[in-house]
UniProtKB/TrEMBL annotation, chain A:
Domain Exoribonuclease phosphorolytic: from-to ranges: 37-169, 195-260
Membrane spanning stretches: none
Name of the protein in question: Exosome complex component RRP45
Predominant cellular place of this UniProt entry's protein: cytoplasm
Similarity annotation: Belongs to the RNase PH family.
Region: Disordered, residue numbers: 311-407
Taxonomic lineage: Eukaryota, Metazoa, Ecdysozoa, Arthropoda, Hexapoda
TrEMBL record, chain B:
CDD domains the record matches: KH-I_Rrp40, S1_Rrp40
Domain K Homology: from-to ranges: 151-197
Keywords assigned by UniProt, alphabetized: Cytoplasm, Exosome, Nucleus, RNA-binding, rRNA processing
Gene Ontology terms for molecular function: RNA binding
Keyword RNA-binding among UniProt keywords: yes
Cellular component GO terms, alphabetical: cytoplasmic exosome (RNase complex); nuclear exosome (RNase complex); nucleolus
InterPro entries the record matches: Exosome_RNA_bind1/RRP40/RRP4, KH_dom_type_1, KH_dom_type_1_sf, NA-bd_OB-fold, RRP40_KH-I, Rrp40_N_euk, Rrp40_S1
Naturally occurring in which organism (per UniProt): Drosophila simulans
Protein name: Exosome complex component RRP40
Amino acid sequence: MSMNSNLFEPGKSKPERSFVQLAVKQNQRLDGRRSNESRDVELTFGTDWGSVAVSMGDTKVMAQVICEMGLPSLSRPNEGKLQLNVLLGGVAFLDEAYSTHDQRSLKLNSLLERTFRSSKCIDLESLCVAAEKHVWCIRVNVNVINHDGNLYDASSIATLAALMHFRRPDVSYKDGELRIFKQNGLEFTPLLFHHYPVSVTYCVYKSSGQPILDPTLLEENAADSVIVLSFNSYQELCSLTAGGTAPTNAPIVMQCARNAAARCKSLLDFVRKALALDEERRSQGDRSVNGLVGLILNTEHKLSYNKLMGIQKQQQQQQQQLPPGENMELDNESSETPVANEEPSKKEGAGAPMDTSDWLPHDEDSQELPMRSEAIPSKAGKYKTNKKTRPRKQNNSDSEEEAKQYI
Amino acid sequence: MSATNTIVMPGERIAAIEELAKSKRVILGPGLRRLDDTVVASKAGPLRHKEPGTFWVDNYQRRYIPARGDLILGIVRAKSGDIYRVDIGAADTASISYLAFEAATKKNRPDLIPGDLIYARVLNASADIEPELVCVNSVGKRGKLGVLTEGFFFKCSLNLGRMLLRENCPVLAALTREMPYEIAVGVNGRIWVKAHSLKETVALANAISALEQSGCAEIDKICGNLGDYLQT
């Protein structure tokens, strides 16, 4: 049975591959989407804090956040821990899911680790109760229920939504005695975030220069290379994975990056909006979602990206109209995106060395200030102290990305 | 074949067949099992009956169980020695000899590489040895068998594959009225289609996949949608 493994999934035979290549060349997709169109994202929040089911088409992912008290590591005695576990066992046709060398689950795990842990999106110091003794260990269990491509996006949305949804119990530490108030009527506290990263996946084919967004499993398996970009709401790059054999040049990656940054932002807005709706529902005392099946099948509590963001888009347009001065730089960026011809001129302006570390963070830097103040004006004050140190750190971690070497 | 409305569940005793078996000979097909003098269902689904005394359970299944004489679609997985290993969606990979192709000799070997799609017949199938395939008939001609190039290939449930192959199935005839196409249906739940253009092929594949949810009765509606899709 193990011999038979990966041929059960689509996209492993030659006719399928050549067909997808041909379809991409003719700018068509099998499900009728355009190349920059994604499937609808649906979120369902569970009864517990920090349990979320995400579905994108037939891809279904569940994430559950668990917290417990634990010992901090010796090197960072005053920081909590964040662990990410990915479980691919639910997908029946991936026989190799159980083997330790499974590339797929390792890749997914490392992507989530880089997106959420290495980018330091959660304020781990706030999870410290007593230095060197008691810290909160936050664990995110990402359970893949069905795999129809683009696991990266689905699981990163699930992880982000679960972490944002999560509330941990209050705790007190007095005279060496630790007390956790679990059902005390006290408010549970949400996690503190530095920034909110989400990933966006593109597939690139040899037959066409046009990368396609949100691939299905067939498209993903037939692709020559897959690019996964994670951005936060300030349009800062959090992680970049680019592998495969398709010739991807800098303009393609930049084009992907710009579109991805915009999509990440709207995805985050969607998650925020969904959380707000869930909060509203909870305050009315309606918390019943029946078990796992209820979580996946429930249509009543399902929050759809297309539906929610239809309203959101109008609001964004209004927002952009209000402060025109602040958005100047952003508008320049977005107007450049669809026109590929303008890319070369930009390259010349940036100078001879075509290094991503040279010009990718450069773009981000120029955007940072106006973007940040515009992104979440209401919360700006709350996180200001954290943010001042963060952007520098962020750029350092960007330049460390190994992905750069592949490009 | 008559479709009775009885749905049986695994482990359910079927008294009607036991009664019939007392008077005449009864053949138990897939999904039914004899335990001493009782008949018990081993799969869930509607119970089917064919005169005079054949019974089986038409259950929903995606894993193929090889049977001698079946026409199937397989993906070449590897070369090993003088055989190719072929994935046919069963629990085990099947094998096909180099010599099981038309005009193949020891010198003149067929040129198959991993990933190729072949339409083949099951020559040998038993529970304990791996199934063996051939791409020629008894007189050494290939007929319709062999490597399938171009076109689109997708997987479906075994039921859908069987349904399309039924003599009185209206689906393929209805689709023919919309456009010309080539199709190869394997009873292992794999379908290969090819139409004139890419768009037509996609439309065809989507129409056939849609049957999985809706059933034969809605084929006219699906064909109507197909026409709309192609015109846009």
